[in-house]
Amino acid sequence: MAGPFGARSTTDEVLAGVDLRGRRVLVTGVSAGLGVETARALAAHGAQVVGAARDLAKARAATEVVRAQAADGGGLELVELDLASLASVRACADALSAKGELFDLVIANAGVMACPFGKTADGFETQFGTNHLGHFVLVNRIARLMKPGSRLVNVASSGHRFSDIDLEDPNFDRTPYEAFVSYGRSKTANILFAVEFDRRHKARGVRATALHPGGIHTELGRHMTPEILQQLVASANASEPAGAPAFNWKTIPQGAATSVWAGVVAPAAEVAARYCEDCHVAEVVEGGGRTGVRAYALDPERAKALWAKSEEMVGETF
Prior knowledge:
Layout lengths: L10 H4 L9 E5 L4 H12 L3 E6 L2 H7 L1 H6 L5 E6 L5 H14 L3 E6 L17 H16 L4 E10 L23 H23 L5 E6 L13 H13 L13 H4 L1 H9 L2 H4 L3 E3 L2 E2 L18 H15 L4
Parallel strand pairs: 1-2, 1-4, 2-3, 4-5, 5-6, 6-7
Antiparallel strand pairs: 7-8
Helix pairs in contact: 5-6, 6-7, 7-12
């Protein structure tokens, strides 16, 4: 059953009665926040979880709860992955490929948000390079390990509304850097990547979707001051029509709920090449409001163009 679930649903509520024994799942970013909760919920229902993280020592400590609550058949294996280094990404993908075990679900959860201007090890602007290009290479390199009936779930954000992608200047070489514009570009890219990945793989029964987890207090917001957070909340409330409920932060189990809903509960055809939020498929919107997805983030031609640009940037063809 795909519902009824909503903004306040938790991972445990969404997965109630779901048996994931025999399923194998890759989750990136399992050293904190949503990644840990996503891994915990899946393992607690019997899934074998492969958790990827840049800092394995931090991840081991953070995922003690995952191992402690793993159900019969469930478990956790950690692998090293630094999305800001294509050498690390390729090494991780090669190790997974060498092992040869297939995946039922890949959740591209890791990311950075609104950080100061910087560059990855390969010279890409940090947010686009980490949030999009790192996952682009990882997922494409292990795509053959995704069995028929499997899914890719890209954790994007309502922040995609800050900006469409810029294929002419992805690294801010010619335009002034703005942290939230960069974040918006990278999150739009996450959605477009899911759209094109789905088109390329649906014939063999592999589908892809993207989602907004909601507003949650996690380490992702480490670069934002309380004043910036207040401004974002005020802006979100101002975009709503008069009388609409005020913005409320989600708990981490509520924030991870849409990831597990889109990954194992919702019908694949319902979420494929779409954008989800609050455990449902979002509507395309062009006006204000806190919910919905911009049309440019689901544009199949933009998705194809981003794919080609991404291949050019990373020097690999998939």
